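Notes on consecutive records. When two proteins share a document, each keeps its own sequence and its own token line. Never mix them. Below: protein one.
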Amino acid sequence: MAPKQLVCILVYFYLWEYAVNIEVGSYEAKTKLPELLRGVQGGNRYTITLRGEAVAELVPAQGNRLADASVAVDAMRTFMQSRKQPTASVDLKTLINEGRA
């Protein structure tokens, strides 16, 4: 195999990896959802069709949501620690009873 052919094949497979888009009918998507989700975890992209027309795309999520949640929790803790304790002068029992009236 000539080097030029090898380069072309490697480029094709590289692009193919990112361009794979599998069409799946809505009924099949419903019945095989766990399998499709495992495929998405592996990097596959799916187009869900209804009567041959594309209606939805199932693609890998962008970013790390766990990191976003961790940042949000840290910000909330910092905010809560910076605030004074407003409940020291508030009678919680009275507030609860007011809400029940």
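Protein two starts on the next line and is unrelated to protein one.
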Amino acid sequence: MRNNLKKGSLSLSINAIVVLIMAITMLGLGLAFMKNSMGSTMKQFANVNEDIKAEMIKELQESSGRLTFKGEDVKFKQGEKREMYFALKNDMTGPAFFNVTVACNGAMGSGTASTLTLNTFKNFTIDPGKIQVAKIAIAVTATQVPDTYSCFINTAYNSTSAVPDAKYENKNFYLTVE
């Protein structure tokens, strides 16, 4: 009778080890699946960004416009951070140094525009006939007052020095915090 107890406990241990190995294998397969799924999703986001850039370049190439921004009225939730794009075309005969300012300067209600964070590359050079696509990083704090804010992209240029001083092109847009 003692022999049967030892054999039973050994059988139980082997079963536990087999179940543990199967669980670890399934966990590994699940993690590999998730990694592949997330990787393909990230590639799709990268493709969307490239499509947006290509669309903005095409829009400026086919028009007399100098500045384009996808988002006349952009919506954000409190605490949200997002990157958006704008494109700037140099339609002058020579290279130009550009300065870009992105900010919000007013609200429809009681919100304070100065607490919104909008950042972009401030200075860059564009060769004649070329188009530069750049990001605007927008961050809304978790305590930002829900409101609609009046924002702008202002550009200035100078063709002879790296200190842009002549107004080039401006674009206004609305940023709504929900």
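For the record: The beta strands are 67-69, 73-76, 81-89, 96-107, 117-120, 123-126, 131-139, 147-158, 166-177.
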